[in-house]
Amino acid sequence: MKKRTWFELTKMMSLLMVLAISLTFLNPLNAEAKTKTIKMKKSDTYLSYVEDLEKASTNIKSGTYNIVQQKSNGIFHGYLKFVAPKSKTYTITLSNLKCKGNEPVNCGVMLYTPLNDGSDSVKSIIPKTKGGIMNFSSKNRGGSYVKTRKGTFKLAKGQVLYIEYNTIVKTKGKKLTSKLKIK
Asked: Torsion angle of alpha carbons 165, 171, 176, 178, nearest 10°?
């Protein structure tokens, strides 16, 4: 090959490589699904009947969510409803808890499912998790106060799961945000 032809070929390959790299930076491939933002309905009472939970719950599906809660009577309290699309072991990950102010924020999360015995009652689901409870915090402080909490549990196809968030904070913040991933 002549020197000039070789020079043109390498120049063309360099331009193609620059184009491929710039397209990758402009439109990166994401392995993770997009995060949806959910504004949780306010609830200032503890509910234990399906009829009440249905009214107070915000529906979600498998995926990643930014959860936004508004303060009600001095606490952040609300419910999410998840219906299992298939029978399997699901993983729930709680993280990125934030509220205005410098005080650490701690959130307790409970999981419930209907009894399906003809009554309107629910029972607790205790997920397998390090530490045994589904609490998480805005700051790592040891024990149950961790910034990210992951738990697993089994659900049958069509089984309903209610996720209760309960957070009491000293800060004057009126909005609490966190991240939830369920898969």
From this structure: -80
